[in-house]
Amino acid sequence: MRTKALLGVLAATLSISLTAHGETYPSGPVKIVVPFSAGSSTDIIGREVARVLGTELHQSFVVENRPGAQATIGGSQVAHARPDGYTLLIGSTTSIAAVPFLLKQIPYKPLTDLQPVARIGAVPFILVARADLGIKTVGELVDYAHKHPGKLNWGYANAANRGAAAMMTHELKMDTAAVPYTGVPQMVIDMLGNRLDFGIIDTTNAAPQIASGKLRALAVTSEDPLPQFPGVPPLGKTVKGYSLLGWYGVYVPAKTPKPVIDTLAKALLKGMDNADYKAHLAHAGLIPYPAGPKELAEFGQSETRKWAQMVKAADIHPQ
C-alpha cells in the first residue's frame, strides 16, 4: 500500500511539474533544426516558423541548418535530443515519409522517434529543363530521351525530388542518369551552367529562373495547373495518376511533454492564421497547409504508405 501511495505521489508530482513546464515554456532560446541548406524551401519556411514562434511565445527561436544524407543528419539530431521542447525539427516529405524507403539504413525512426506538433505548409513541384536544351514540353523531353538514350541527366537533392523524377522516368521508359546534390540551389546552379539537363524541384527555387527565361517549365506535379505558371500542364496529363505535393511540419523528440507540444501547436496554428504568414509563404511560392498534432500524425502515416507504394512502383532501390 505504501509503495502504491508513493507511486501515486510521484505521478502527481510529475504531472504538476510537466504542467508547470508547459505553462512556463519556453524559458530560454529554442533551436529549430532545418535538415537542408540555406535558401531551400525548407529553410525558408523554417525561418518563418522561427519568426512566428518568437512573436507568439516571446522567446528566441534560432534556425540551425544541418543538411546532408537525405535530411537524416538533422532528423537524427532532433530524434536523439533531450525531449524538453528546446530542439525542434522542420520535418518534411523527405525526412518523415520518403527516406525510410530510399536509404538502406537511417539513424532514427520517423514515426516513433519524433512527435508531430503541427503541419505548417506545402509546396508544389515543377519539372524544369535548362533553357538551351531547346525542349518546351514533356513530350519533347521524352522523345529526346528515347532518341538519345543515356545522354540526359537529372538531379536530386532530397527524397521528394528524387522519387518524383525517378517515378516519371521509370513510367515513361526514359534512359537517363541521376546525379545527387546536397541542396536544390546547387542543382539550379548546375542547370544554369549546362551541367545538368532537368529535374523536378520545388517552385520556390524554380520560379525566379523560369521568370528570367533561364529554366523552362515543362509540367507541374500538382493535380491542377498553378496560377503562377500559366500554360504549364500537370504532369498527370502525361503520366496517369501522377500527383505530388511537398509538405512541412514541426516535430519534437519522442516523449516530449504534452503541455510543451500543446504550447507550440497553439502558437503555430495561431501564427499561421496571420495574414503576414500567408503573404510571406505566397511570396516564396509556398502555400499554407495547417494541421494540429493528431492530424499531422495521421497524415504522416498515410504519406509513409504512399511513398512505400511510390518507391516500389518507380523501381527505386535503397542506397
TrEMBL record:
InterPro entries: BUG
UniProt keyword terms in alphabetical order: Signal
Keyword Signal attached: yes
Domain of life: Bacteria
UniProt keyword annotation of ATP-binding present: no
Cleaved signal peptide residues: 1-22
A Pfam family recorded for this sequence: TctC
Entry's family note: Belongs to the UPF0065 (bug) family.
Protein name: Bug family tripartite tricarboxylate transporter substrate binding protein
Organism: Candidimonas humi
